[in-house]
Write a structure and sequence with these properties.
Blueprint lengths: L23 H4 L1 E2 L8 E7 L2 H5 L9 H10 L9 E8 L5 H17 L3 E6 L4 H16 L5 E6 L16 H11 L5 E7 L6 H9 L3 E4 L8 H12 L4 E7 L21 H12 L4 E7 L10 H16 L6
Length: 318
């Protein structure tokens, strides 16, 4: 397990207001053995996958930046929060970094915690998924794991080399090789940003999706009916949130900002509903690139989502 850098957890202290005025930096602890179940932050400091897709690199700094943004936010949750440090990819060996992430995710879940993985590019998902599968197999081998991805892109590219554009295709191939069904629901797809080949591949993989235009304005019945049907097929959820699902005006600090996107209020409502099912085994929040955040607006948005996830996520699976 990586060693966390707790120096990032600093901020304002409201001494006069007492115990109810605590902030995140005052409550987060380094992950240690035998601590009560809680949400555990695990960073994937890597943008090798983004570089391979010729995107705008810098997401390797995302985990530290999101922690910094989260540090000064008010503490409103009942269960603990821990920091498990970062898996770092500095040599360009993406496969090795993903294996390290898989092991760290497995260890966090096996210890009774809920991992919130902070990216990094969306290549995070391939490592996260394998760690979740291994951990859940150790708990209940018959559990069916489904993926819900809030994203402007399918990330189903057919490239032979893994990248931020291939993780869900890699998962689909792994499922086929291991005699598992591939359950994948993608919310927020931008039609102009995905080729006809990607839509064709999504159909062949039996992916379910809703376009960004289907989610704005929010149509609760349509969205939540889709979620309910998906939940009928799976037991455990891997929730993946690519920040480029948000409008570019709200989230410019990603490799590929969205021209349309899904409003933050809609994303928050969907995320809260998914977490409220009690079936989420892992969440990842990816693609934040602090080098593109010129005025600090984007990190506040990313940190707010991390805050919402930690607050809304039950400490234990139902």
């Amino acid at each position: 397990m990586p060693t966390p850098d707790m120096s990032v957890w600093k901020g304002r202290v409201d001494t006069a207001d007492g115990a109810l005025a605590l902030r995140w930096h005052q409550r987060v602890k380094p992950l240690a053995p035998d601590v009560p179940p809680g949400v555990t932050l695990l960073g994937f400091a890597c943008d090798e996958g983004v570089r391979r897709t010729q995107g705008r690199v810098g997401a390797a700094g995302g985990p530290k930046a999101i922690r910094s943004g989260l540090a000064d936010l008010a503490w409103h949750q009942e269960h603990p929060a821990y920091d498990a440090g970062d898996v770092v990819c500095t040599s360009g060996d993406l496969d090795d970094a993903q294996k390290q992430l898989s092991q760290a995710v497995h260890d966090v879940i096996a210890a009774g915690h809920r991992p919130l993985v902070l990216g990094g590019g969306h290549e995070t998902a391939w490592g996260s998924y394998r760690g979740l599968v291994r951990a859940i197999q150790g708990i209940n081998p018959t559990s069916k794991i489904g993926i819900i991805n809030l994203d402007a892109h399918f990330d189903l590219r057919a490239d032979t080399q893994g990248s931020s554009g291939t993780p869900f295709a890699q998962i689909a191939h792994w499922c086929r090789e291991n005699d598992r069904l591939f359950w994948y629901l993608c919310l927020g797809i931008a039609e102009p940003a995905n080729t006809a080949a990607l839509f064709d591949r999504a159909k062949r993989f039996e992916v379910q999706w809703m376009l960004d235009t289907d989610l704005e304005p929010l149509q609760p019945d349509a969205v939540f009916n889709t979620l309910q049907k998906f939940l009928q097929m799976v037991d455990i959820l891997h929730l993946s949130i690519d920040l480029d699902v948000l409008p570019g005006a709200v989230m410019p600090a990603v490799s590929s900002p969205a021209a349309h996107g899904v409003p933050l209020s809609t994303v928050e409502a969907i995320v809260a509903a998914i977490l409220g099912t009690g079936r989420v085994g892992l969440v990842e929040l990816v693609e934040f690139n602090p080098t593109l955040d010129t005025d600090g607006r984007a990190v506040r948005t990313a940190a707010r989502l991390a805050w919402l996830i930690a607050k809304s996520w039950p400490a234990l699976l139902a």
